[in-house]
Every structure is written in structure tokens, then in C-alpha cells.
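re: ur question from earlier - yeah i can do the single chain one, its not a big deal. heres the input i used so u can compare w yours
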Amino acid sequence: MPLDTIADIIRSGLSKSDFTDSLKFDCGPAGTITLDNGQVSLEDLPAACTLKMSVENLEKLVKGKLNPMTAVMMGKNKVGGDPSVAMKLGRLLKG
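and the output i got, formated as C-alpha cells:
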């Protein structure tokens, strides 16, 4: 699934959520998706927390097929910056 499609899914979830922190999904050469104050961008912008993962794992995450905490423990995603922001991710994904 392309990043712009994943960004649309995140945008939809964000519209139903109270998630306002800054969070970046870094998928390496495939690109980034940055959330900041209720906005979603495909630009590589600064964020309080960065989650590094493959596009495949990001797709699973937004579809609810990969638990964020399990992904970190299994090494499928790496957290940089403020981990408390990553902990709020569940609110966005349930949105």
C-alpha cells in the first residue's frame, strides 16, 4: 500500500480522535508520514516522537493487525524521542 493511502487512513482516524501531539512514521527510503496538531503530512518534519518501521508494518499497524507495543517489543518498530507520545497512538488507531 502506498504511503499516501496510509496517510489517508491515518487522516480519517485522526479526524475522530483527540490526538494532537507530533508523531512521525519513518519508513526509511519509502518516505515519512508526520502528524502534528491534527494535521497529516507526507513531509519529513520534526516531531516529538519518531516511529521507524517498514511500510508493510505501518500498514498492519493502521489496519489494527499489529499492536504498537508488541511491534516495539518484537523489534518491528523503533521509538525515538518522547515515548509518551507513542503510548497515545492507541487513541488514534481506535479513532
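The longest strand covers residues 32-36. not sure if urs matches, ping me
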